[in-house]
## 1
Amino acid sequence: MNALHTMYILLFTGAGFTCLGTLLQTRRLASRDVRRGLAALLVLSGLWALAVVAQLLASSFAVKKLLYTVGLVFGFGTVFAWLYFVSAYTGRQFHRDRKVVAAGAGLFGLAALIKVTNSIHGAYFTATLKATPFSHIVVDHSAIHWLLTGVAYTLSGVGFWLIYDAFKGRETPVTLYALIGATALPIVPYFLAALFPDLLLRVNYEPLGVAIFAVGVLFFVQDSFLELSSPGHSQLVDILSEGVVLLDENDGVVSYNDHAKEAFSELTQAGNIEAVDADLAALSVGEQCIVTTTVDGVTHNYQATRKAIDTGPQFIATAVTLTRVTRLVHLEEITRVHSKVNEAIIEEQTQQGIKERVCDELASVDAYQLVWIGTSDGTDVAPEYVAGETDEYLSEGLVDPASGDTAQDPVVEAVTNPDQPPGFVETIDDEGGSGWQRAAAKAGITACLTMSLSPGEQNGSVLGIYTSAEEGFSESEQAMFAEIRETLQHAISAIEAHEEARQFQAAVNQAGYALFITDVDGTIRYVNPAFEESTGYRTSEVIGRTPDFLTEDTDCVSVWDDVTSGSVWEGDVHNRRKGGGHYWARRTVAPVTDGSGEVTAVVAIDVDVTDERVRQQRLTVLNRVVRHNLRNRMNVIAGNASVLLHEDEPTPDGAEPAAQIRDTASELIELSEKAHTAEQLIDASENSEENIGLATLLKGLRDKMASEYPESTIETSLPKNSDISVDAALKPALVELASNGLEHGGSDPHLRIDATVESASESDREEVVLTIADDGPGLPEAEREVLENGEESALRHGSGLGLWLVNWLILQSGGTLDISVDSSGTTVTARVPTQSSQKTYAPNRSVSL
């Protein structure tokens, strides 16, 4: 072995072992990809150099050619190791781009195939064995070799340009470029060997240049080299737990780490950030936003922040960091929803409105796939309201108990089982679970929470919330839903009570009878519209007063004592109207008690029975007239008829019984006609709204009495303001009173009729006071009872219908009567309300007395 041979062996052996020996130093590099790229470059360069050594030591020509071919493959591989290293070192992502990697692998495989099959086709190179200055092969390369060599140097030049582009405009040490240039030094001895074949061998000197570059990087300028690389990128890609996307000045994607790729799988194929996510592209430096992605059917939220990059390669302009905030955003959402639910409870006025608003608000949370309310129609459980996007679950997950699957959807179970714990949470088991769980898992649901909206009630409404969150429902969520459940239950109960109260109030307001409510002290707190219509008092005029201002001749204190002790009182009361009129009412007074039985209020109902009372009196009086008067008169007729029948011969004395029969029959006819006339007058007064002027009424009365009783003396007096009207029904009543006084006044009767106008108590209206005074013997007590109270007893009753007619007509016109009897005669005082609008009185009324 000569000296030159030894020198070559030592030179290439040193280069090979230097490359392989420095592999341990690459562990000092922080970036995994930079470390991998440089290690691959060192290994391939070292193996390439050792392949040259093996070739120089081999004695067989065939082995020499084989080792030369292996060295070519290793050498071509260093180009791709170099590009991988440069891409990682400069912060780019070509080495992670699947398309780029696939293209590089294809090119390397094709070149390696051409090289290793050269012994077959011989188109790549030809070799000859040369013995001087020592045994070695001389290779002549064909065009294909130079083509692939040009590709290799072009690709290497791309790597050099990437480094230059990354650091252009910055103060870069000359040493770095010198080391990079060392990789091109092997070209010099290769061309010199072609010119001086006796001095240098035509072998591959590239391993020597790579060895110099590797030793220089790792031992001489390691600190400066790493400082000029992209350590920020390396650390973000390999160390940070949050996602990072590096962008150039045109928003092109330069680099990203695995966490970013997990959030946005589009990064592997996108060249620009806008193709990944529009919200990320819209971010300006210093801005933040929340972006939402879906990975394997699960929604995730990230806080994206865009920052400027002031260090590292110049082409990296900004970095977008992605911090996962799914749980935080979810908590913010449910906090917002909690507030919205409270707003819905306040704003909505119906149970259904609240239920629908709550479902819609909860379904607006991204994680809540389905929100629905289940209720029972008595046999099956059906959705009352549904919100969300997994309606298909309702058709697949609601298990019919009759199907034999004992495990039911939690909402269905809660509807049919009111003893289920409140806020029940069930986690979905998608492996071997029941039918509803498999359907839920298919819809992406991970857990279900149920809450009863009507606790303790069989077949009540149950709200179900189905989440797709990986963690299901957190403790904070369950606590929030416990508050929502309690609030909803109270709100729905309050609305139910309010709806019942509103329905009751509507019924009371529309009732046809007067109603008022007082507190336990008897102070009126509420009256319904029928009360205002019946009494003439407005609500504002009676609230705060006691009912005794309304009722006459009733011991209100005694009644109230009975009612507040828990009893119900019922009876007829004589009420006064605001306009001065009166009416009879059947009053029922009952206590209102609380849960403990204590009286908290009193409710009174007045039903106007004036017409009923008059009708009853009319029936009673007519019955009495028919039963008593007719019986007495028939007895007279029967007795006189017997006298006539038992006489054998008619005598002049028989004329008297016959006359009595005639007179009694006439009286019966007159009584019948008077009863018929009274019936007509009362019916006419009930169905007529005719009024008559007071002056016209009294003048007509005076003229009528003077005509029928010419021997009488009649005096009348009118108020100064006589241009007022009264109910026309008063005319027959006054005629009856005047006729009764004159008929019983003796041979020269005297009658005085006075009219005055006074202000009615508790009213803005006026009332007319009519006084009729006679000088007769005085009205019997039985007749006075008829006029004043409309009453009579079985033993003491009026003799006819006239005074009853007066009572009925005065009462019908809203008036009252008062009678006084003394030694000078009888005085009857009638108080009747004036009428607001005067109507023409028809003097030819169909009936009269």
## 2
Amino acid sequence: MQSLFKYYRIFFPALFFLHSIQGKEISSVSYQAQVLPALEKHCIQCHGPEKQKGDVRFDTLSIDFLKDRTAAETWHDASDQIKLGEMPPEEENPLSEGERKLITEWIDSNLEKALREIKGEQSEAVIRRLNRTEYQYTMEDLLGFKMDYVDGLARDPLSPDGFLNNGKVLGMSSLQIEHYLKTARKAFQLILNEEEEPTVKVSEVKWNKGNIRGPSSKLYVGKSDHRLGRVNYWHGNFQQPPKSGRFTIRIKARSEKRPGYPSPILEGSYGFFVSGLTLNIQGSLPEVEIDSNETKTYEISSYAKLFPMTLANVPDDKINGVLTFRNSLDDGNPLPKQLEKITETKDKKGKIKKKKTNYYPEDPNFSKIIIESVEFVANDYSSWPSKIHQQIILPEEDLNNERTAKLVLSRFLTKAWRKPIDSQTAEKWFQHFKKISRDENSSIYALRETLATSLASTNFIYLSELKPNESKPSKLSTHELAARLSYFIWSSMPDVELRALADEDKLHDPKVLAAQVQRMMNDRKVNRFAEEFSKQWLDLGGVDRVAVNPRYHKNFDNRLKPYMQAESLEFFKEIFKKDEPMTQIIDADFTMLNARLAKHYGVEGPKSQRFERTSLKGTNRAGGILGHASIHLSGSDGAESHPIRRAVWVRERLLHDPPKPPPPDVPGIEESVKDFEKLSLHEQIEFHRKKESCNDCHRTLDPWGIALEEYSAVGLKREETTVHKKPITSDTILPGNHPVDGVEELQKFILSHRKDQFAHAFCSKVLTYALGRSLTLEDEILVNELKNEFVKNRFRLSGLLKNIVLSETFRWH
């Protein structure tokens, strides 16, 4: 019999078959008289005194599920493999239907009994820091001010489950604390205004018909012009750009587009150049859709300190502001080829001179931007102090009044730390503020420093849920529950309504909680959950880990890589937004495409870079995630497909049943096979499967990847391998002796034979993400309850989110 542990588990097995036992009373089944004889007949020869595949021995394995957790997990692993038809192997004596039912129901019954007895013993307090994404969104929502808060912040490590919000792996360093403090100081310097109201200054940006200079010049094709199509750009300059303050760029422009064609998109950059030097140093501006054929004024606002600025010792009269714009609409078509034209001119003597010039022809169907004028408005505030300043310090409040200063600090700390603060804490922070104010003779400076310090403290950076009584489970406080809920669905802090309900101690009311979940799912911030969960669950970062080999994919455009990831993200978001069955992740008749990715696939699709729902009916593309180039590329080496990587992805991400790593003591086959490196990957795999030490795992793992062989490393259909030009083979035998040929048959198999396993896997993944920790054996009862309701609710994620939030596990320590 094959190894029981060919699929490792993170803390607990992928349990998906626990159910109440009906019919025969399993408690009356005798292990010694009934179960052990069946094991001796079919299992002991591979898992007994003479041989212990996977280091598992049944004849001495404890049957005390309550006291021996390791043994309980091993028994359940066996139950799973028997139900999936993976044990015994095809070449061994098969179990009869009666024997199969006897063994699995005995295991399941005893395991469920043990789980119910240990319920509550292993609950754990969550203490974890905000990850990069949560920190970014929390700073935005707290301050109401958008900037890049994570630039320079180290990447977060993935947990064994594949998520970025697991407290066990989210460490902290002095460099991170330094970053939090520095970033908060920068934000408060822009937000809290101390000086007198500055004078508004409007400057005309003069069009420059010359070429762009600087490191970004290669990004611009054509010439400087007022008409921006597939080529050409507009750039201009003005004198003495501001070194601080808020500014607004006003662009008077119109589009020139035909009915049914997408609007052009204005992409800009702003920066400076110093007179006498040749370089333009610029930073990117937000994109603007030019949505009207009538002239309109479009505005882009930001802050000078968020853009490159020259050294302080350069005289102001030597500094020039520079703006550059181009049309970034991408319909997937290539740039036009340059043409040559000859112009004739007469000199003073009347002699005709001919001059050759190159130019790009204009595409009449491509939507264009016509820029009429541009102006730059420095110190552009709608009110003074700024609106954000007035949200922290109300207009009627005076920081020089001690009572008022305490109120301002307490109000901010309560919001930022997501919980009430006591008077002792408030006094401590007030004294900190008071000392700085006295030393620096500035209450605004003192407030900036005090608030910045509060945003580098553990009260802000960490989500802490401390148990008042470690000996038994206890409810989260209402503020802890509000934070857990908001970081689950919004990846950010609770909003005003959630905080108010927490203050009123109403959030544990199931009706109130359910209503809040629905409200939060109706908010656009729910896209954060859709993006973060799907990106981590599907491991879309794998696309970035693979470099496409240009030797074998000469026409591949690297700009497609983020579009490949976006297809899968937008696909998940579309299913979630429309509240459609999540089984469409496995198979669907549509995908989400933009113009360039549609052309890559060879299907009719959108006409811009915006992703749209695109039908796959009548195309050669498979629907569902298994037809996405993101999965094909990440499951490759950049040149050729990698069936094992793809198989591991299917088992781990879709079925929550990943293979264990190969044993460290198994020697590589490379040394024993002549010219091994010259073999194709598929031939190498065949050699691995011929080795007994490798075959146990590979014969049940490889088929899941072989079924995807019809797709190349860059996600295109093919008939031969990319590197060795040999016919592809996508027909294979899945565990349980199920033949499939290609992706479409694999999808049908999963939906007909493994739908319950997919449902269990998906519920496990969402619950893991929701709790910010790996699941334990104790969570299994809840996972099965969630799975049953998920199936009953036709696999809709909206119901699953509500059920998770309403569960005792989510609301309690």
## 3
Amino acid sequence: MIKNYFKIAWRNITKHKAFSLINILSLSIGLSAALIIGMMVYHDFSFDKFHSKGNQIYRAVSDLEMNDDKFGNPGTPIPLGQTMAADYPEVEMKAHLLLYSTDKVISTSTQKVSTINDRAIFVEPSYFELFKYKWLAGNPNTALDKPNKTVLVQSRAAYFFPNLTPNEIIGQVLDYGEMQTSVSGIVADFEQNTDIIFNEFISYDTVLQTKMKGTATQDFGSINSSSQLFVRLRSDADIASVNERLRALAISNWDEDSIEFGLKSYYRLQPLSDIHFNTKYGIYDNSRSQADKSVLTALGLVALFLLSLGVVNFVNLNTANATKRAKEIGVRKTLGSSRSQLIKQFLGETFILTLLATVVSIGVTFWLLNVFSDFIVGEVDLSLLSEPLVAIGVIVLILIVALAAGFYPSLVLSSFKPNRVLKGDIKTHSGGSSIRKGLTVFQFAVAHVFIIATLLVGKQIHYVMNRDMGFAKENRLFVNAPFGEKDFSKKETFQTLVKRIPGVEAVSLGSQPPASTSGHINFMEMTHNNKGYKTEIRMLYGDTDYLEMYNIPLIAGRQLRNDTIMEFVLNEKAVSTLGFQNPEDILNKQVMYEDTLVSVVGVVKDFNQRTLKDAIMPLAFTGDLARSGWSHFGMLHIKTSKNIDLPATISQIENAYLNVFPNNTFEINFIDQTIANFYSEDEQLAKLLNWATGLAILISCLGLLGLVIHTTERRTKEIGIRKVLGASLLQINTLLCKEFLILVAIAFVIAAPIAYYGINNWLQDFSYKTSISFWVFLVSGCAMILFALLVISAKTLRAANANPVNSLRSE
């Protein structure tokens, strides 16, 4: 009997080719979206699930408040670990670590040089008890028991010592410039997905030999993101109670300066499983963007809507097409088929269609993975379908889609009364036109929301990319000097060499560009008119050519006298925050900065220092205040002429760089590209919306086409009679289109406020934003009506042009 069900199902699918094709295409698009996003979710939720007692491991983090601003920091004070180990009985184990990076690491025996060294840590021996690694060489009990010892992961060891076995690597020496260490252990790389990506583990006491020794000896009054703490709690620990005591501990260590400036810090424990998703505290891999549960939720909704549109098409077309199968159902019931047997048969047809759609969706998925390769991490590919959980999820998805798409149509089809349908009385059993209309409205409402969102997101991105940020960014480049380079004369030599290159108009030594995601933030205060003013201040360092290089105009006062003098040039925001309305009034006044009185000699016009999501901060521009120790001038900023041979100029800059800094990696950055990177996630969102919009319109229009085909076939005789009675082509087409266009218009009325609410919420992330223009909604509505009209007219015009003699004869 089951074989017979499938045979009849296949016959019906091939008999109604147009409807079957529309259903398969619609479902395959929705299924492919569900497959891709499902694999993304599975991939992101697979991180760090393999650690022994992983649900008991936490990272201690800090929540900071500065007046109305709230932000997170993955670092905690150095003494917190010892305090928790001594005073918190819930703590089974703790491991403190210090993130370490240097510009160069050299193997003294093989002379292999690494210039990418951002995954090293100074760490306590207990780290390897907290996180279980497979040891390939060395003794885990003594590997980090003394200074100047290093444990390497296998891949890192293979890089430095390519021809040695793990045991032969033990005792080899690595030179970090400011220290040397001997390799005391080799551990295997983690094979599963993880955010614990460190590859060099240096014994903790070695930090006292480096520039980070100050960080390693700080007290509770300092929070540094490089200082991080992992703990493992007992299985019965009350995490809420621990967090309450940590909060109280933080409050008890507030100092007077912090209270005066309104700076508050609180400690809490972050579950290991939360590290991958919580953008507030970040991850250790700076080469990729962090997963975000809100983004995954949004992607899930997109997939759900696209899949729902496909299911809606199936329901609409099958219920609309029910009358064509009425006599078949009547005969089957007369011959003894029960309603349950008919429901099983129709569900079987749906299941076959869903299986065909799944096969097609595999191809669509492969294509979409390539389209969104810059949005989807490389580990997400079709090979994930072989994972047991993913495979089970796909099977469950197919069954749910088949049931959702086939259940209602099967009820409608199986409800026909044989004594009525065999007499031709089937008008009252046509499948519920009101439900079909409601589902059609739902389809086009979703499409409208996508169109409006796409237009407004694109409008905002165009706005932020083209808005004047207050400084020049065209033809501006910058090059980083090697990290930790202490010989300032080399930077000056590099500056001199670049200045001589044809096509280079100006050069300037300084810190970061005017707008960047990094920067030095400190505090400043002053008293005037018997009132005290305090503010958080963003520091920008540069030589006397820096402001002119970026066309940042002075509106009062003068430039710095030289590159190292202790003078400040403030921006307008800093001037107003310190209580002055007129920039001229603050000139030659002194502000307190790091317990030193500093004169204000100039004021520059405000410019955006970060993305346009952020408001302009108070800013102080000054010279290289710490040149005698750790120079702030780590970048050479370059202005080039227009219409030059840029690749040739960059090649000459590279030659100058390698001449001064041999054995280092040259990297040049463009200011305009740096600013564009601020909005890479928003551009990815825009790209996603573009595709989601296109797919939503495609699915909706395919469904509309199917309904139009059904309507024109059902009204063939009516169209013929109207033509015989003198109706024009326009009148007939208007008659057939009117019903569907009304549904599209109703969908727009429903979608417009939903889209406005969603986009308005998204725009709140931007301090500078475009307006939500009326024309966007008008264009969306007109575009959707135009799409619908083209789809409807493609069929209705053909029906209206048909010879009425043939139409009437067919009836």
## 4
Amino acid sequence: MFDPTSGLLALLVAVFASAGLLVAVLGGAPQLRGLAQAFRPSRARLRLWAGAGLGAVVGAAFALAVGGPGALAWWWLAGLLGAGLHWAEARLGPDLADRHTDVSESSGRFGHVWRFLSACAGLAAALAAGGLLLAQQGGEVLRDGLGLAPWAAGPLLAAIVLALALAARRRPGGDDLDGVGLLAGFALIAWATLALAALLTAPGALAAGLSTMVREAWTGEAALAGALVAAGQAVLWSSFAAGPGTGGAASGDPAEPAERVVAVAPLTAAAATLAGLLVLAGGDPRAPMFSTEPSPLPGAPAGAVALEQHLGVGLQPSDYGQTVVLAEGLGLEPGKRYEVVLRASPRGHRAGEVITDDNMVVVPAYAVAADVDAVILRDRDPARAGNPGFDVHVACTREHVTTRVGEFYKLRPRDPNINLFQLMRARGLDGPYVPLRDYHFTASVRATVTLGSNQTRHLLYEEPRPDDAPADPSLRELITLNYAGPYLDPGGATEAPPLAFAGVPGASLTLDERVHLRLDPPARGLEIGFVNRLGELEVPPWDLLAGATLAVLPHRDDPQLDLRVPVQSRLAFGRLRFASADPAIAFGELATTHPDHGVPRLVPPSHRFAAEVRAPTRVPPPRPEGSVLIPLHRDLRPAGNPGYSLYTPHPAELLLAGMQAPVRDQFGAAQVLPGLTAALGRTGAVAGGLVLGALTLAGLMFWLRQGQRFAARCFGGGEAGVALVFLVCVVAGPACDPAALLRIAVPAVALCAVLGLTVILARLPRLRRR
């Protein structure tokens, strides 16, 4: 996310606390005095609602992530200070219309520089926090709440904002935010109603959440983190960002009593508290979504389950040829015929032979090999051989030939520069493996009695093939080739089901919904690949690894002594190769230069993917307690690289490589949706998406107007250009990484707020005179 102890945020906390306390003292506790006026009509308050709405929900999620539930309790204290600052800014509104005038006039050139710097910081904050981050949060909410495709969220939000802006221009005053403020106000009321309904529906959720919030607020770590988050994060992204330091409260009617804006910050704290309690009710956002139980499937990652019943428990030779001993309780009756299938592996089978002199692979012309157009080579190293990412696929031409000993397919590399034998010898590859079809056949069941135990067993055997049937391996040969099965094959042409994962029991999942998940790398980097003879770290050609710019040299004893090394990559022969960008470190010489450190580990970005939630009815016993999740990928099962270029791996490949178990890909406001789903079902999530979508639009309109005002102060105009850039940011926001956006938005808004609050501090004597 971001470092809450950074210098700028520490300065923000100090300035915010100082200004808030001084205003409370010099203003005679306006937070309390203004309660009588707090709920009367106010244009300034409407403007603050527009900017504070979604910020309350986003801030709650961020506060929980950084400070835990105790941070929400600190929000109320910070909200009281923020209410006083809202009052001060509204009180000084007539003078703050151009709030740096006195500073400029009294400080000469420094004052003009200060004014220009403040306007630039405000413009940057409007684009980064409003255009990019707010759009990203809104896109995430629309994706998980309404099922809107991520690529469509940005253009849709930008189009609606443009329509609202054009409509506002036709009204008197042109930039009036009253209508948007009313929208935000009604949306906040709807949000509070929806959140309370969800919390009251879930037994004990409200009481348990409040108890946890109060209990954890008094621990030393939570108090420090909560104070930083509440002042520098929670208030920053809600009422504070919308008012003090950015001029939100100074934009209303000068005739209005300043006390009418003091209710915004406490009510924002209330909305944030409801959001935080919903996040807690929906479970830990960082909890794994896949089961961590070992998989019964060979070579599969933890949690993987099959979606079809394996019929056999062993093999037994007989007078009928190779037979399969059937499991108990399948309901297959002796003397009857059944359509069954043996499943081919997407990683191929060792059914061919390399002819070195002719640089080709010869495969018998079986019907299951009729579509062969590639040769697959696997890594010889046992640790890497199990991961399809290390497979090398060589595209081939196919020629059907007839010889004295039978019919064959000749497979030659399409690239004449590839020599299969030399490639295998130089790179330590094993093969050849060729991708084959599933084998569908008719089988019969017969009963037999085991001598000695006198137990009846059921055997399955293949019916004799017709004379005109195409040539195929025998059942025994297919099993020797590591075909999987047999499985029932109703209709005789079923396709292989996708690889599924058992969900964690108790997760807030709805059947048939699409959930968006994220795989994160381990804290000390992803331990994958090897250092080749060229001194480069060689890894699979996964597109997420291509984005890695950092590697970790893990210390053998103390993680605190790990070294971080910048790296640069290149794609060669179907693998990614990483070299150190630090001239003082060479990966090929680590044993000599860094004997206390291990093989480099890459630090890739997170991998995001979608999965569909299904009932476990197709999972053979013992079935998982919860739902099953099916990753949505081009390959139903891990198949490795289809060529020589970069590719997006199946999530199972990444889990086999050591990526952490997937969590929900929610970073902020969308974290409240699981709580709504758990209490109110899918309807609750849709309603939450609509309400939060309305708050997103209000916030975007607020930041657009603020950005245009800052541009006018900075450049003396350019409102149309700012609007265009802002809309581009809105379109691009949902596609951006939220963690990267925070690294831009937090400093921008913090600098803007610090500069604005400093001016308020400088004018506190004038406030006292009033």
